[in-house]
Specification:
With about 1000 residues, the protein is an alpha/beta fold. The chain contains 37 helices and 24 strands.
């Protein structure tokens, strides 16, 4: 939030004005002194402008007559001085109010037009900009033209220095801003200004008076922007690549999942979606509906669907519209060009011929513009030497390059292979656009190649950075800079080849034929997506009366409001049902609570009586073979203890804050967690069978309160596991409303504990298993390797992977030899465990077999890629594959954790993504208790009804009770409901 003092001292300077021209959020960040994350290109542009300004200033001063130049003259000397040229002048002015003295509306209330001095206005007051904002600029130079006669004042021409050879509208507006501030300061019109720019010191005369109105409008918008206490809407645009706040803005946009992340979406389209309540990419992804195209449009290209792009991003799959084609009939020649746009100079042509390891890379470098023709001719010679070349490039930059170079330096001979390649060059963007939607935020080459797994190894990560390095090379001629640029260009060609191959595969592959687990094969035809359900679609209308009419036509409404007034039989039935549902419940038992003698908390006498009350408890009574509703009326008194300042006296049988008892809560939790029933179904069942009048939302409250109560139980379960000799670990994914998360499971033969995590990183197991000194049994996920304990990798996972390797290469005898040897070794170990169990006394004899297996593996010489990978995997995990041979009770597989994962998978299907991280955490606490009860042979429902927290103690008491009285009934007299 911007403070009032900050606003009162706000001055609009050229850097703020320039930032606003590029992006309003950039202007805001500069005004609020936000720390920039840095941008190599932006820093280079700033340095070049400062250097160019200093050089040109000295050049103008040197060319001016002696005695006339002035450096930084005062404001008084601007009018009265006799100078012809002045440099480095600071000019200040005030942003005037609009005509009539009206004030601008506050950005927080655009419709406000009240007088700021009117104290009766209770709403947000308008801001008088002339009282708040000042204008200041540092003119690069000013040329003074003397007066031509009496009554004609001297003219002032502001001069601005820009280092680029090409100028844009923003450069002219910046000069017009200088002229506007100078005009307001001197009180006279500034008709024109000059921009000196480029390598040749070219001078462009600009009519600043014609741009003054536009400058004024921009200043008013800046003032309104900075007057607001909230930043403008964050919108990513093309300027982001050149902005020092790029990382900050992108991070914020990713957190918000903002629509501006989609690179091709215009402001008009974004506003249209906002008016429909769509603000995020994820929301947009659900709006795509495949539609049948009219016959007259089937031969025309499909329009671009932002919603389909968002759907591809959400599902992380390639989506195809229509039948795109990419056929490269000949030798592919991949082209990528580097140049300096502001000089129209191409200094590096990258050419990659062919695919795979046999591809040949050429980098044609031009030291200066005179060498441009040479590298073009070398490029044509390379094309001529290729048999049936097919030129492939990405984007319009190479298209412009081919057109300009043929115009500047000539075409290849007519009918030659080079001429055919240039004429039939394939722009990969034209194949992808509106036909192939890849799960990337933009269709830039770097985004696509990165998604397919390509990584740039050099320091250059963007084309703007390459421009800066080339300019630096021209000044320093360092070999390292040239090497970095050619390497960057070569990797661009490699990335282009990878994307072209992937696009060709996607064009020729049907979604139904996808079998490989690879992004190149994960393709969906958008026309095959399910159509929108038009039978039960929601009725919407811009006419409010239609909405009301549609509500009145609903079946429930007509039955309860219309038909009941028409048919007397329906009216009598409704009254009878109402009396039944609202009638008083029959009391099964009345209990009068005794007066406590002392405070149950501090054991102090002399409690103060507050009030007496009677409450109805709705509970369930369990019998040996049935269940019935049980209504109890309690008469009790509430007391207050002055010693510990606690009120007490309410019966513990009541669930806190409800009229329900502990058995109702236990049954709800049992059905939710163990039977994996939906909460709505549970509420409907209990209300129908037992008439408990239980609200659906109450089931969620029961679950959350029970999770708080049993959190200590889960903590104790984990503590017992860490003290043990072996722990099984695994993890699985869970989908929530707007994101995916992970559930980690840790299990032994007696306990199970589940934990929620936002990511799959290894920080959670490292924290939870701190102090564990036993053996960790897990799969081959690398996060487990960071735990400082002995580890046993699941050999069942390894066996399945080896089996897949044999099936994928059925004729590879080397991989079959390795897998067969391992199968014989493991089969002997399994036979021993089947006979003697997991006792290291009997298993240690197989250590010799293991050593023999590894000796044979190290002596053998393999050549196939699959065999070499298999050998490397065995050698890498040698210390973790057969740990169980030296420890009793350690299994060779991770089935214990996988069985616990199955229990969560059943619950996950019932949740169906309709939960939050807090809700999932509640489920995991209760599921930990449920599965631990099962592992220890304890009935989960009995444990819930007992009111105990310690499962181990409860199991021991149950076993002791069975020894004393085999026919004893479960204990149902605990106080679980009152203690939650």
């Amino acid at each position: 939030m911007v403070s009032e003092g900050f606003l009162l001292s706000m001055t609009i300077i050229p850097s703020l004005f320039e930032a606003f021209l590029k992006c309003p959020i950039k202007c805001w960040l500069r005004a609020t002194s936000e720390i920039a994350s840095g941008n190599t290109y932006a820093e280079w542009v700033r340095t070049q402008n400062e250097s160019f300004r200093a050089t040109e200033t000295e050049r103008l001063l040197a060319e001016a007559p002696e005695g006339e130049p002035a450096r930084s003259p005062s404001r008084e000397n601007l009018k009265a001085g006799k100078w012809r040229l002045a440099v480095d002048i600071v000019v200040q002015a005030t942003l005037p109010t609009p005509s009539g003295g009206a004030s601008y509306p506050s950005p927080t209330n655009p419709g406000s037009s009240t007088n700021p001095t009117d104290s009766s206005n209770s709403g947000p007051r308008a801001t008088r900009l002339s009282e708040v904002f000042a204008l200041e600029t540092r003119l690069h130079a000013v040329e003074r033209v003397p007066s031509e006669g009496r009554g004609k004042p001297a003219e002032f021409i502001p001069i601005r220095f820009v280092f680029t050879n090409k100028l844009g509208k923003d450069d002219k507006l910046l000069l017009a801003f200088d002229g506007y501030v100078l005009s307001e300061s001197l009180g006279r019109a500034i008709a024109a200004g000059k921009i000196i720019h480029g390598d040749d010191h070219a001078t462009l005369k600009v009519k600043t008076a014609a741009l003054a109105g536009e400058v004024r409008k921009r200043l008013e918008k800046i003032a309104a922007l900075l007057s607001s206490h909230a930043p403008p809407d964050l919108v990513l645009n093309r300027h982001c690549a050149e902005c020092q706040f790029q990382a900050w803005c992108r991070q914020k946009a990713l957190e918000k999942d903002d629509l501006s992340l989609l690179a091709r979406m215009s402001e008009k389209e974004r506003k249209k979606l906002h008016s429909k309540g769509i603000f995020t990419v994820t929301q947009l992804s659900y709006t795509f509906r495949p539609r049948r195209r009219p016959k007259r449009l089937r031969d025309k290209r499909e329009r671009y669907h932002h919603s389909l792009k968002a759907l591809a991003i959400r599902e992380k799959k390639i989506h195809i519209v229509g039948s795109p084609e990419l056929k490269i009939e000949g030798t592919p020649v991949y082209l990528d060009v580097e140049g300096l746009p502001d000089r129209d100079f191409y200094y590096l042509i990258g050419v990659r011929i062919g695919d795979g390891e046999s591809a040949v890379q050429h980098s044609l470098w031009a030291d200066s513009t005179q060498d441009e023709k040479r590298i073009w001719n070398e490029f044509l010679d390379i094309l001529a030497s290729v048999k049936e070349p097919v030129l492939v490039h990405y984007g319009s930059y190479e298209t412009t390059f081919l057109a300009r170079m043929t115009a500047r330096h000539g075409n290849p001979p007519e009918g030659s292979g080079a001429m055919k390649a240039i004429a039939g060059a394939v722009n990969l963007v034209s194949v992808i656009f509106a036909q192939i939607y890849l799960p990337t935020l933009s269709n830039g080459l770097k985004d696509l190649a990165a998604w397919f797994g390509f990584k740039w190894s050099g320091p250059i990560q963007a084309g703007t950075h390459a421009i800066a390095l080339r300019q630096q090379w021209e000044q320093q001629a360092e070999a390292l800079l040239k090497r970095n640029l050619t390497s960057y260009n070569s990797e661009d060609c490699q990335a282009l080849a990878l994307v072209a191959k992937a696009v060709a595969q996607a064009c020729g592959r049907d979604a139904a034929a996808n079998t490989a687990d690879h992004p190149l094969c994960d393709v969906i035809n958008a026309d095959s997506l399910p159509k929108q359900n038009t039978m039960w679609r929601k009725f919407t209308s811009p006419i409010p009366a239609f909405e009301e009419i549609n509500k009145a036509a609903r079946w429930d409404y007509q039955r309860d409001r219309i038909y009941i007034r028409t048919n007397n039989r329906l009216k009598r039935a409704a009254k009878a049902q109402s009396r039944t549902s609202r009638g008083a419940m029959r009391i099964n038992e009345e209990i009068i609570c005794e007066r406590p003698r002392v405070c149950p908390h501090c054991k102090r006498k002399g409690m103060k009586l507050l009030y007496g009350a009677a409450r109805i408890l709705c509970d369930l009574r369990f019998s040996k073979y049935g269940l019935r509703r049980w209504i109890v009326k309690y008469h009790f008194r509430s007391y207050y203890c002055a010693g510990c300042r606690v009120c007490f006296g309410k019966p513990k049988e009541f669930w806190q804050g409800t009229k329900y008892g502990r058995n109702v809560a236990a049954l709800l939790i049992f059905k939710t967690v163990d039977l994996c029933m939906k909460q709505r179904t549970i509420a409907q069942e209990l209300n129908r069978l037992y008439q408990l009048r239980l609200p659906e939302r109450q089931v969620h409250r029961f679950k959350a309160r029970a999770a708080d109560f049993y959190e200590d139980s889960r903590r104790k379960i984990l503590t017992e596991m860490v003290k043990g000799a072996v722990i099984h670990a695994d993890e699985t994914r869970i989908a929530l409303h707007t994101k995916s998360a992970y559930v980690w499971v840790f299990a032994t033969f007696r306990e199970v504990a589940y934990f929620y995590a936002e990511s799959r990183e290894g920080d959670l197991p490292l924290k939870l298993l701190d102090g564990f000194e036993g053996v960790l049994v897990s799969d081959f996920y690398a996060a487990y390797d960071s735990l400082p304990c002995s580890q046993q990798k699941c050999l069942l996972h390894l066996m399945r992977d080896l089996n897949d390797a044999v099936l994928n290469d059925p004729y590879d005898e080397e991989i079959k030899e390795i897998v067969t040897s391992f199968a014989i070794l493991l089969n002997g170990i399994v036979e021993t465990t089947d006979r003697w169990g997991l006792k290291c006394h009997f298993l240690r004899k197989h250590l010799l077999d293991v050593d023999r297996f590894y000796r044979q593996l190290s002596r053998a010489s393999y050549h196939s890629e699959a065999a070499l990978k298999c050998k490397e995997r065995f050698e890498k995990n040698r210390e973790k594959l057969f740990t169980f041979l030296n420890h009793s009770g350690v299994p060779w597989n991770n089935n214990n954790a996988e069985h616990a994962i199955k229990a969560f998978a059943r619950l996950r299907r019932a949740i169906d993504g309709l939960s939050t991280p807090e809700g999932i955490e509640d489920y995991l606490v209760l599921l930990s208790v449920c599965q631990t009860c099962k592992y220890m042979g304890v009935d989960f429902l009995d444990f819930l009804r007992s009111g105990e927290k310690d499962i181990h103690a409860f199991a021991e008491s149950r076993r002791g009770r069975r020894r004393r009285s085999p026919r004893s009934e479960p204990n149902i007299g605990g106080h679980i409901g009152g203690q939650y």
